[in-house]
Design goal:
The protein has strands spanning 3-6, 14-17, 24-25, 31-41, 46-53, 57-58, 62-63, 68-79, 82-85, 88-92, 97-98, 101-102, 106-112, 123-126, 133-134, 140-147, 154-160, 164-171, 175-185, 190-192, 195-199, 203-209, 213-219. It is mostly beta strands and 224 residues long. Strand 15 and strand 16 (140-147) form a beta hairpin.
Length: 224
Amino acid sequence: MAEHEINGDLSKLAVVHTAEVDWQASPSPSVWRKRLDLSGPEEAGRVTSVVRYDADSRFRQHPHPDGEEILVLEGIFSDERGDYPAGTYLLNPEGFSHAPFSRKGCVLFVKLRQYPGGNRRQVTIDSKAADWREGDVPGLQVLELYHEPAHPERIRLLRLAPGAVLDSQIYLGGQEIFVLEGELENGERSYRSGSWARYPAGSRHALRSDDGCLFYEKTGHLML
């Protein structure tokens, strides 16, 4: 299979404002995508995407080598195990298979082939019903989505109150963000709702939000 790359160099900053990107066709005629990064075969590589299911979209039963991660952004995503409304987070480990569908349509943030190893736990979290904790700086709330000592990545949702600042720090294992609500700034760039950024290992910066925001954060997975 031919190799493909979209923002494939993990040593470089990558930024995509998804509102400015057109939907592209997928192997299913009723499922669309905006691929943010891709390394490997076009339909079987390591990939991060925003995915849209039209109403009554379905996929056949299929496995997920190296696992998958899903954050439901809009609508209701479903499989044979249940229904997952907007705000639901899923991490499905190596060996997981399902037949996903959406009755009324949905939009997802999806990461594929990034969670190898059969010793990971399966995670399902309703972020709208979960208990958030106060962060270690004023105006920060945190919801832990995934963190296990045997694996490098830490995945969280972070909510910043208006004017809140995350002090400058070094992200030794890199940082990836996807803005869900509001606007986030790092002094040089502004990220509005739908913006995705991947900072390489060793990056240093501060983050702030003048009007408040909610964003997904993944760290530790780009370790030097």
